[in-house]
Amino acid sequence: MPPGPLAAYEEFPFTAPVLGEEVTRVVYRRGAGPGVVIMHEVPGLYPQVVRFADRVVDAGFTVFLPHLFGEPGRELSTTYALEGLARACVAREFKVFAAKASSPITEWLRALCRRAHAELGGPGVGALGMCITGNFALALMVDPSVMAPVLSQPSLPFAMGPKSKAAIHVSDEELAVIKRRAREEGVDVLGLRFSHDFMCPGARFETLRRELGEHFEGIEIDSGPGNPNGLARTAHSVLSMELRDDAGHPTQQALQRVLGFFREKLGGAAAAP
């Protein structure tokens, strides 16, 4: 049985290539309706990430949660987060400093998106990444199965200078396909970030606006000094750690926009108001 907060999820192994080798990882699945692949942030599938996935399930979607790193269900702590970040930095499936190349793990994730689409049908699937996986949702848009990419605080490449702050972690060839799909197929991209998040600089959203034009929708929540919602300047995780249930709170509004975006793009039973 899946651990703790994942107890309601079905667990299955999924095998697909990464860097020329067949790799098997565990995926957690729950829900009914159009498919949404949710890629967790560092340090792993901790309870607040699963809580967000539960909300997507409750909104009428089938969620697929691939286990990419960490210990599923383990509570978040500073030590655990630092350990997870260190492992991701050295893992060959991730290229945390690559400005114009996506991480190799996106090949495996595209295969998972195709599997979800083949199983559930409809126009396609949603793909949502957080933090270190945030840009993965953009790279997955290269695959025709992905119709609703959401980038929550996309943090790769790590912002080490002006060029990396503005980079979006996809190759020029991938970007050409992404722009073509946006232009010809109307595939839009939704992005979320806090205004003073140094891990996801504003320059990154500027690049997305420049490259995708009207096909990029960016939500930037004020986390500056004296902001009306008392958000810390260090606020980072829009849909997990910082998510609040208060009506009208900007993170709650961001959550509702994400769910609305999935309804608009994926249709099916979840399209009902």
How would you characterize the overall build of this protein?
The chain is an alpha/beta fold. The protein has one domain: Rossmann fold (3-Layer(aba) Sandwich). The chain contains eight helices and eight strands; from the N terminus they run E-E-E-H-E-H-H-E-H-E-H-H-E-H-E-H. It has helices spanning 47-58, 78-90, 105-120, 136-140, 162-166, 172-185, 202-212, 250-266; strands at 10-18, 21-31, 35-39, 62-66, 125-130, 146-152, 189-194, 216-221. The protein has an eight-stranded mixed sheet, sandwiched between helices. A hairpin with a 2-residue loop joins strand 1 and strand 2. The longest helix is centred in the last third of the chain and has 17 residues, at 250-266. The radius of gyration is 17 Å and the shape is globular. It starts with 9 loop residues before the first strand and ends in a 7-residue tail after the last helix.
CATH class: Alpha Beta
What is the radius of gyration computed over CA atoms, rounded to a whole number of angstroms?
A: 17 Å
CATH topology: Rossmann fold
Tell me the number of strands: 8
CATH architecture annotation: 3-Layer(aba) Sandwich
**Strands side by side in the biggest sheet:** 1-2-4-3-5-6-7-8
